[in-house]
Amino acid sequence: IKLAVFASGSGSNFQAIVNAMAQGELPAVCALLVCDKPGAKVIERAKKAGVPAFVAEPKNFENKAAYEQAILEKLKESGVEFIALAGYMRLIGPVLLQAYEGKIVNIHPSLLPSFPGLDAVGQAVDAGVKVTGVTIHYVDSGMDTGPIIAQKAVDIDEGDTKDSVMRKVHAIEHQLYPQTLAKLFQKKEEAPISK
Ligand code: GRF
């Protein structure tokens, strides 16, 4: 499977995915990084891992459709079959959703449908919940909606801060994302060939 990762920031999840591939734990290749933030740390990580990066800012395009069309061309050029969003801070629009229907997944740092949107860990800590977690889900046109594929809980203990919860959440994410992708891709290979 040829995978593209979309990311806007640090890219620790991108790194976890690439590492799992290198260790033979994820039977896929990362064919492309798509990044909307020039200067993001994830671009450096891609360079080090030898993953080609397409960096483009939406503001340099006429509209969102044109921006996504440019991404789509790159994806096609690179033979990308599946997309994993990993800290990509934008909604996916109709151009990409239609081209990759059912083939885009996202990771979100809460137990959805609780705490969608920005700063999900901060939201959970502020709400005083004792359990939050990580969700991997298929992407649709909504914000952190779409069918849930996998979830894992993270306890919020006495004395935890937003930073300490964030560290726990990240540690879970870095395991769960590669594992879940591996399961999805395995299922694909096992699926009977329909004629
Ligand atoms: C992760 O917490 C992910 O769940 C959220 O954005 C964060 C990205 O972190 N969607 P990183 O860039 O992978 O380090």
From TrEMBL:
Residue numbers binding N(1)-(5-phospho-beta-D-ribosyl)glycinamide: 11-13
GO biological process: 'de novo' IMP biosynthetic process
Residue ranges of every copy of the Formyl transferase N-terminal domain listed in the record: 2-181
Reactions the enzyme catalyzes: N(1)-(5-phospho-beta-D-ribosyl)glycinamide + (6R)-10-formyltetrahydrofolate = N(2)-formyl-N(1)-(5-phospho-beta-D-ribosyl)glycinamide + (6S)-5,6,7,8-tetrahydrofolate + H(+)
Keyword Transit peptide recorded: no
Gene3D superfamilies in the cross-refs: Formyl transferase, N-terminal domain (3.40.50.170)
Single GO term (MF): phosphoribosylglycinamide formyltransferase activity
GO cellular component labels: cytosol
Signal peptide stretch: none
Keyword terms of this UniProt record: Purine biosynthesis, Transferase
Binding site for (6R)-10-formyltetrahydrofolate: 64, 89-92, 106
Domain of life assignment: Bacteria
InterPro entries, per database record: Formyl_transf_N, Formyl_transf_N_sf, GART
Active site: 108 (proton donor)
EC code: 2.1.2.2
Site location (Raises pKa of active site His): 144
Pathway linked to the protein: Purine metabolism; IMP biosynthesis via de novo pathway; N(2)-formyl-N(1)-(5-phospho-D-ribosyl)glycinamide from N(1)-(5-phospho-D-ribosyl)glycinamide (10-formyl THF route): step 1/1
SUPFAM superfamilies assigned: Formyltransferase (SSF53328)
EC class: transferase
Role, per record: Catalyzes the transfer of a formyl group from 10-formyltetrahydrofolate to 5-phospho-ribosyl-glycinamide (GAR), producing 5-phospho-ribosyl-N-formylglycinamide (FGAR) and tetrahydrofolate.
Family: Belongs to the GART family.
The name this protein goes by in its record: Phosphoribosylglycinamide formyltransferase
